Hints:
Layout: H1 3-9, H2 12-20, H3 29-38, H4 43-63, H5 74-79, H6 83-95, E1 100-103, H7 110-117, E2 121-126, H8 129-138, E3 145-149, E4 164-167, H9 189-193, E5 202-206, E6 219-226, E7 229-237, E8 246-255, E9 258-267, E10 287-291, H10 293-297, H11 301-308, E11 311-312, E12 320-322, E13 337-347, H12 350-359, E14 362-369, H13 376-383, E15 389-398, E16 401-409
Parallel strand pairs: 1-2, 1-4, 2-3, 4-5, 6-8, 14-15
Antiparallel strand pairs: 5-7, 6-7, 8-9, 10-12, 10-13, 11-12, 13-16, 15-16
Helix pairs in contact: 1-4, 2-4, 3-4, 6-7
Amino acid sequence: MDAASVSKLLSPDGWALLNSLPPYDETQAMVLATRLRADGVDADLAAAALTQSRLRAKARAKLGDFADGMLFTPDGVEQATRLVVAALHARHYLAAGVTKVADLTSGIGADALAFAGVGLRVLATDVDEVTAALATVNLRHFPEAEVRHADGLALDLAAEGVDGVYADPARRTRGGRRVFDPAAYAPPLDAVWNLRAQVPALGIKVGPGIPHQGLPEDAETQWVSVDGDVVEAGLWFGPLAPDGPGRSALVLATAGGTTTSRTLRADLHDDAGGADLVPDVGPVGAYLYEPDGAVIRAGLVAHAAAELGGRLLDRTIAYVTTDQPAPPPADGTAPLATGYRVLDVMPFNLKRLKAYLRERGVGRLTIKKRGTAVTPEQLRAQLSPKGDAEATLVLTRVGGAQHVLVVEPLR
């Protein structure tokens, strides 16, 4: 989106048109565009409004009803923080006693919206003029939030009265490809975390694929999942990490309009079994648990096994097995793992597995795997299942050899 399109959308006629459009429907987009042209709507304005309608529909998964009053860029939707997670970011700063946050890479303003929403003063900056303009629109209801078209790294933080800093460096190229090297973030990660010398209350959102090697030793690095989807990792410094440096996994589950959570944590240099906890390894038990993705990314599978009262099938594979069902999560907390009852275990043999499924009339298969080169799509084609029954197969290593576990989800 360019400045001219933004200007047209923000005109009284443009804003009225955008907010009068029906809920976005891809199958009806061309019909609607044709109708708008027939009604005499400027072609560029119609295109900009339809684009925003599509982006708002996409953003609802992250921002809910707030998306209906916001403006977006495609990259802004991709990188915007989910509202439930942005609210947790804001609570970090509130709990630390921060009063004014500089959001150095505000994008379309999702995090700044959450900061302002809890009463924090916000100075939001973005190096892209159009993006900064959209953030200004999105924060229009919050007089305590100021948006500037500027390089956040060039701010005089002391002169601005900033006592908390947040950044979400861009992790995509202009072509949309993901960037995995922190040095290639925009701005580079090193340049951002060096700011903790000026403002100790520093938080940085990074990609969940960030490697453990090279993470700052004075930060709490927290991986976050929402309903099983690992959405980010965050680096929290100083008063934003009240429990001190370490690695943690925050598991969020949303259902029925409520959000439950669970945090699993390992302190750095914890001689009592923290970051270097060594798990037990043993045979398949009656139950199998697949730890949440945030737990896996945080390297806390051994900690999850201890919480579940189980052992690993293989020291390098993120499956936990138990002889008894693990205790259910306490009220108001999210589960650390997805559980299954183990029905059968067999060494992996294509012919034997095909016969097993045929004898039971299995035609619908869910195939999961860890620690094997077999692809579910290829295996499904080779098995050519037929029948009305369904089954879940888990392909993994047990005792150093490839096995198939037939399981059913725990209800």
